[in-house]
Design a protein that fits this description.
Length: 138
């Protein structure tokens, strides 16, 4: 019985590490951290910034999963909201810069004719995935 629990724990931990690694790689690849370092003229500290992004993700997951209570932490909520808003805004701007790649990609692969099919397929997949997520009882 405990062997099954250990196997499930290893599988869950491995899956979580892969997903987290992919997310942090995506954030780093978008250039959000490098852009901040460039704009603040602190490029010599970029490894520290990347470590802070990873540590922040790990700490956030630990607090979320284990529901760690922070005594008298209500004053941290506006600070967290501000920092989370800044992060999401910077991430969305980095994604907007990458969207310039799609027209070139579409022309190179000569799929201009079927681009509407791809967009509709992605929208339907996103909608179906959301429905399945929110209506788990089906």
């Amino acid at each position: 019985m405990w062997v099954n629990q250990i196997i499930l724990a290893v599988i869950g931990l491995s899956g979580g590490l892969v997903v987290a690694g992919g997310l942090f790689s995506f954030i780093i690849e978008l250039g959000v951290v490098a852009d901040f370092a460039d704009r603040t003229h602190t490029a010599e500290h970029i490894l520290l910034y990347e470590d802070c992004v990873a540590i922040g993700g790990i700490a956030g997951n630990l607090i979320s999963v284990f529901q760690i209570h922070i005594p008298n932490g209500a004053w941290l909520l506006p600070v967290f909201g501000l920092l989370a808003g800044i992060f999401v805004g910077c991430w969305s701007m980095a994604l907007a810069e990458i969207l310039n790649v799609f027209p070139i990609f579409v022309r190179r692969l000569k799929i201009v004719r079927y681009i509407s099919v791809f967009v509709v397929s992605m929208a339907l997949g996103k909608g179906l995935g959301s429905l399945l997520f929110f209506f788990k009882g089906w």
